[in-house]
Every structure is written in structure tokens, then in C-alpha cells.
Specification:
mainly alpha, single chain
Length: about 180
């Protein structure tokens, strides 16, 4: 296991131990930790950082997922065509909560789509996926482009029209 991942696990355990009974770790504290950990990464190539992200995601802990998705977003200036396949794999294999979905899709994955609008045709197909998290992601991923008024070549209403009658409430809330 990579030393950054080991440090992340150790620091998250410390945060948990120092959190009052009945409370939970604050996302802001996890993001501060993520920033410190990212600065300690010696090899900041996109390949290496994404390997670290995968290791963090493999732990299946919410806080480590926040760190992984933050690391991925910090690599936004290095996204390329193969980034989609990596991110889609993470969406399918690791996103299992609305917080994961929204964090990942409004930052790293949403930024990839904003940069590479030609990927929108792939996003349309997500609206028919059996996994409701992927269907929710098809709407949430559009938020960065819409917020920056940078969605030329994409048709957000195509997504909302396809999801309008979805059977899952978290999908409906996601496109709302």
C-alpha cells in the first residue's frame, strides 16, 4: 500500500477518534487533510495520482472517497481522452451514495465533461442504466458546465426529459 494511502487511513482514524460521540467527521476537515496529503505526493503524474485514487477508493470508506475524488479533481489540467474510462469505472464500481455521486460528478467528472463536450453522447446512454446512481450522475454531471454557462454542444434538457419519469426518487432529485 502506498504511503500516502496509509497516511490517509491513519489520519481519518484520528479524525474519527477525535469526533464527539454521536457526531461525524466534517467534510471540510477531510478536504483540508486531502490538500495536505496531495502536497506530499512526489510523483504528481496523472497516472500515479489516479493509482492513488483507486487505492483510496478500494478501501470503501466515505472519507477516503472524498480524498480520492479531490485528488482526481486536482488533476483537471491533465485530463485526456482515457480519463473518461477511468472515471466511468469509478462511477460504476465505487459510487454508492448520493454524496459520492454528487461530489464526484460536480467536480472531477463534471469538469471532464465540461472540457470534453463530445463525451455528452455517452452521458445520454447513462439515463437507461440499471444502476440508479449512474442515472442520477447523468444529470448531476452537467452542473459544472451549466453553472459556468459552458455547455454549448450539450443538450441538458435531453437528460432531464429522459429522467423525468424515473422510478427512483434520488434520480428525480438529482435532475431537479
Amino acid at each position: 500500500m502506498n504511503k500516502i494511502v496509509e497516511e490517509a487511513i491513519r489520519k481519518i482514524k484520528e479524525l474519527e477518534e477525535n469526533t464527539p460521540c454521536g457526531k461525524h467527521i466534517i467534510t471540510g476537515d477531510v478536504r483540508k487533510l486531502s490538500s495536505k496529503l496531495f502536497s506530499q505526493i512526489e510523483d504528481k503524474s496523472i497516472e500515479n495520482v489516479f493509482i492513488l485514487c483507486e487505492e483510496l477508493l478500494n478501501e470503501h470508506l466515505w472519507a477516503l472517497g472524498v480524498i480520492a475524488f479531490d485528488f482526481a479533481y486536482r488533476m483537471k489540467n491533465h485530463y485526456n481522452e482515457s480519463t473518461y474510462d477511468i472515471f466511468y469505472h469509478w462511477l460504476k464500481d465505487y459510487v454508492r451514495g448520493w454524496g459520492d455521486c454528487d461530489d464526484f460528478c460536480t467536480h472531477a467528472f463534471g469538469e471532464l465533461l465540461r472540457q470534453k463536450k463530445s463525451l455528452f453522447v455517452k452521458i445520454i446512454a447513462w439515463t437507461d442504466d440499471n444502476d440508479f446512481w449512474v442515472r442520477r450522475a447523468s444529470a448531476v454531471i452537467l452542473i459544472p458546465a451549466i453553472m459556468k454557462n459552458d455547455y454549448e454542444g450539450m443538450e441538458p434538457f435531453t437528460i432531464s426529459d429522459r429522467l423525468m419519469s424515473d422510478s427512483h426518487d434520488l434520480v428525480l432529485k438529482g435532475y431537479g
